[in-house]
Synaptonemal complex central element protein 3
Amino acid sequence: MEDSTSADELREDTLQLKKDLEKIIENMEDMSVQLTWMAYDMVVLRTCPELRESLKKLEDEYLKCKSVICSPAAKTNLEELSATMDYGGTETKTDYVVQKNDF
């Protein structure tokens, strides 16, 4: 009786260990990918200093656009515009948006 209980506990412990090891391996793989991208970014930035300035400008413009788009007033205006637009024919609003955004 004691042997079966200890065998069950051993199996459960082994399964838990396997799960923990898989999580650790996955975390290490994620860190490896992040480190690879960091190294790549450093090489690119050192070989082309102008890129740093371009990336900074791009990030600034993105943040400006995001603040405008995500503001409560912009959301209200977008909802009002969406409600008043005529999509015509058999198009749905979704079809129109997809067609307008395909560029």
Remarks:
- Residues 89-103 have pLDDT under 50 and may be disordered.
- Helices lie at 2-47, 49-69, 72-84, 93-101.
- The two ends are 71 Å apart (CA to CA).
- The first helix runs from residue 2 to 47.
